Amino acid sequence: MGGGGDRLPAEQRESFEVVTNPGSSAAHDEREGVLSWRAANRQGMPLFDCVAWYDAYSHLLGRSTSHPAPLFLADAAFAGRSAELATVRQALRDGVPCVIHGIAGIGKTALIVQSLASPHVSSFFHDGIFWFGSDELTLADICDDIACRLNVRPVLSLNDPQEKAAMLQEVLAHRSVLIVLDGLPDPVLAQVVCAQLSASILVSVREPVELPDAVSVALSPLAPREAVACVRALTGRLADHEDDVEVICAMLGYHPLALSLVASYQRMRNLRPATVFGELCDLAPTVENLTPRDGLHVLQLAFTLLYNSLSEEQRALLAALSIFQRRTFTAPAAAAISGKWRQRTELWLRRVVRRLGAASAGEQTWEEVEREWTELVRADLNTLRQLGLLKTTSWKPDRYYLVPSLIELTRARLGPTEEAVMERAVAYYRAYIQTRQRDIAALALEHENMLSCLRWAHTH
Known about the structure:
five-stranded parallel β-sheet; 24 helices; 8 strands; globular; disordered N terminus
């Protein structure tokens, strides 16, 4: 689900002395590179035992690990957008590029998922739907990921992105595939993919993108009736409160994500709409003094309402999870970086690293420790998920991710604790890698998180 957006930058590849191995079949990490860590040792990385860390990680290199195909499930709370939904599905049937654009949280990703949830639409792409949602995506990443999934190994041995695209374009001309670029920060990449790879492309961006023969779908706030239907679907009860709900919808500018957050808050706290409206009115003057990007005061208002309702531990956990950006993570990873039971967590991490995963008599195994960590944060993660701040992946329900439109707001709450959180993340993934050295599937699931930790440790 997404390409390898967390690869090493060019200057870092040079410092680590990446040696290309043309005969390898993996799509991970710099065209099947084998990493030499002499430079890392010279620069001094106190949190890393470089040889041990990447001796385990090197098992990923030279192997082709399949990514799970995305599952598209219809959202019962999806309301309105009937015209836009029909337009997107028709564009997919016609095989023409489609661009969905609008401000953050307006429902671009939800519209894509709802469009693909129809079996009549998804069946058009029997060779695969390739979903990319990384902030650091490149043409080479896209080519490598698709080639790996389709087992087009000659593409993986090439270094030049243009050569990769040219070879893969010939293959895709005879395949029925769809490339989804969700939340694309660089609109130029969509133009490059459409021109050099495939015109079967579905893009979501904040600003319009010009693509040849493309269908453009501009998302605006919901209509008043659609907004009320959205709240009704999430809360399940509106009897005798229609007027209060309409006032809340108007106050939030009929913004889908803001409405979803506030409705989830109302349902979880079992509050009347009038009470929620009063709380929003109390918060509004404070939020107005802030300067959110794109002028989305309503989204910041809804987020602040939910954030203030959390306990101190839940706030710290939510802020810590922002280091994952758009990447997915597990409950044990969340517990390890949260700082909850920090001394005991750090003790276990040091112990696992010291014995390299070999538990002595009477000691807990790594699996037992991870189960303990899962129980430590399970209730808090469920709270964040029920409030709509956190989601689970459709392809693996024990993996979580932050709602992309809320990442910036969440990260702003992290503040000076970011370094301590990243240190715990590095320690966790170091221990994880040492205890899963031969488990290729487990390492592949975490390869983006591991590379992110490496990049951070290399610069700190």
